[in-house]
Amino acid sequence: MALSFCTARFNAILPVFALLGLMPQAIAESAPTQRQELAAALRQLDALQRVVAQSAATTPLAPNERYYFDYPRLLGDLARVRSGIQFYLSPSRAQPRDATELNSDYRQESPPKYHSTSLKLKEQP
To answer: Is a pLDDT exceeding 60 seen at residue 52?
Structure first.
């Protein structure tokens, strides 16, 4: 009896596991890529930023209120999130550079007018 109960239970659970095993593959095929999702998040951030800016412009500051909503801080945080997503989507790539530095000293002494052999130095005693 115990064996037939386990077999019946296994047979009832088996289709569930089969469906769960196929779900990740189906989700992976139908899900948008990460880049598309992040681009959509940027569009949503744009919309949210417009709503917050409009709310900040239309909400009067009450001088006797103890607490107020800090719109500039929220806008700053939204800008930071946006820059993080944009940096991920288009990372800056280091450009190859020449390891030698430019001299930047283009002034040279002019060569002497006389050859050193034609100048006679006085001998020191």
So the answer is: yes
Task: Assign 58 a pLDDT band (cuts: 50, 70, 90).
Answer: very high
Hey, what are 88's tokens?
A: 């991920």
Tell me the chain's radius of gyration from C-alpha atoms: 37
Secondary structure of residue 69 in the 3-state scheme:
coil
Q: Can you give the pTM of this predicted structure?
A: 0.49
Tokens describing residue 72: 């500039």
**DSSP string for 25-39:** HHHHHHSPPHHHHHH
52 vs 92: CA distance, rounded Å: 30
Query: Has residue 63 got a pLDDT over 90?
Result: no
Torsion region of 104: left, alpha or beta (phi above 0 gives left; psi -120 to 50 gives alpha): left
